[in-house]
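Working notes for the structural subgroup meeting. M.R. asked for a predicted model of this chain before we commit to crystallization trials. I am recording the input and output together here so anyone reviewing the notebook later can reproduce the run.

Input as submitted:
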Amino acid sequence: MLGEMLSNPARQSSLHCVLPRLGLFLLVWLGLAGTDPSSWIIGVPAIALATLAAVRLKTPPSGRLRLLGLARFVPFFLVESIRGGIDVASRVMRPRLRVDPGVRIYDMHLSDLNARVFFLNSVSLLPGTLSADMRDGQLHVHALDVHDNVEASLQRLELRVADLFGEDLLGHAPGATGA
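Returned structure, recorded in token form:
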């Protein structure tokens, strides 16, 4: 039976799609719930549904992560995450809150959908920022203080994400507009 499945290219392709996701969700559940056998009463259906949803929602691969870009992105991510945490903590710990919240609109130049989604999800690691919406290549970013240089941070992040996905943004100067 297994030999028959592995010899059929269509089934082999679906196995390559399902097995990594199933393994990932198993590991996540194991990390969250531990080895208690009773947790698997909920875990097995949750893992099955998560795997099914991941396979059904799978988009065709477009841009792939580059290993060298990943090696450069990880330290950037760690530093910016720490800076973001310190920035927010320092704002709320002061006697007078240093906030002037608002929305900034940033024109993205990433072309790959995966790169755009990754960029959108990474914005919240920057100090005082949170992704609010993305429409027509524009990212709406909620900023704790609109007077901070949010655009420069977004440009640096977009360049890192472009490097991570192998995109060349040199022809486009990433930019922002106020809102």
